[in-house]
Amino acid sequence: MLGAAIAGLPTTEDPAADVVEAGVSVFRCFAIGHPSLFRIGVQQTMGPPELARDFAAAAAEAFVGLEARVTRVEAVGLLGSRSVRDAACELHALCEGLAAVELRGQMTSGEEPRIWRDALTALVAGFALAAPTGGSGATATRRTQ
After folding, report:
1. 97-121 as b/e, with b when 16 or more CB fall inside 10 Å?
2. Measured between alpha carbons, how far is 120 from 114 in angstroms, rounded to an integer?
3. Under the phi-then-psi rule, with left for phi > 0, alpha for psi from -120 to 50, and beta for the rest, what region is 82?
4. First-last CA distance in the chain
5. C-alpha distances in angstroms, 83 versus 41, 59, 80, 101, 124?
6. How far is the C-alpha of 8 from the C-alpha of 70, rounded, in Å?
7. What is the DSSP letter of 79?
8. Residue 82 contacts residue 10 (beta carbons within 8 Å)
9. What is the reported pLDDT for 46?
10. Among 74, 75, 110, 140, which residue's Cβ finds the most Cβ atoms within 10 Å?
């Protein structure tokens, strides 16, 4: 379901906005609309481990769709020094975390789509920045000051 929704989402002239839209209108809607499937197939926190393995192929297919969207961001020079795979992992992690927080009822009621959009927009904008090299971010920051 998630992979098909990502594949079916139209693209625009703005690949960064398209990635944000995929997070908000596809990943969020999937997680909120199907919380049990989200917990089984994405978080792998519900049911026996073999149940999550049954979803592995579908999860991999959905991730390929996300990578395709991130590849468009790379093509316009907005990934900085990140690989497509790393950026897609970062996007996935943020979406999974946002979904978990929303499902626990820990977001401001009625503001959930805005919170998702703001967080994903900030992450995607940050991709254009060069990732720190070597050591922790704090160490890299101290070296540049």
Report:
1. ebbbebeeeebeeeebeebbbebbb
2. 10
3. beta
4. 47
5. 25, 20, 8, 27, 13
6. 15
7. S
8. no
9. 62
10. 74
| Contact predicate 59/27, CB 8 Å | no
Joined together, the tokens standing for residue 104 give: 């626990």
The two tokens of residue 56 are 């592995």
Rounded to the nearest 10 degrees, how much is the dihedral formed by the CA atoms of 51, 57, 63, 67?
A: 170
